[in-house]
From TrEMBL:
Residues passing through the membrane, by range: 40-60, 72-93
Classification lineage: Bacteria, Pseudomonadati, Pseudomonadota, Betaproteobacteria, Burkholderiales
Keyword Transmembrane among UniProt keywords: yes
UniProtKB keywords: Membrane, Transmembrane, Transmembrane helix
Protein name: Apolipoprotein N-acyltransferase
Length: 94
């Protein structure tokens, strides 16, 4: 079984810490520009997306012993996340 280069607690902290930072970025941007204008609903949807993607990544790491399979699965989660985000932001499919 191939292990992660980080200890379990370290990669979990990195994953969820990155999710918190991503969630805070629009709020910080709103303090400096009027170009970013999110309301509570936007933060809730983005937070839910981050929670689902983070949970999927955690599940992948816990259930998949092979590094290459983890990378492909994580790339798939990232791609789906970005496609949903782009659709919600600008409607690329409709």
């Amino acid at each position: 079984m191939t292990s992660s280069p980080l200890q379990p607690a370290a990669w979990r902290m990195a994953l969820w810490g990155a999710a918190v930072v991503l969630l805070l970025l629009p709020w910080v941007a709103m303090q400096f520009t009027t170009e970013v204008s999110w309301d509570l609903g936007d933060f809730v949807v983005f937070g839910a997306m981050l929670a689902i993607a983070g949970g999927a990544l955690e599940g992948i790491v816990r259930l998949t012993p092979h590094r290459r399979a983890r990378l492909w699965a994580a790339a798939a989660v990232a791609l789906v996340f970005l496609l949903i985000w782009a659709e919600l932001a600008v409607g690329i499919f409709g």
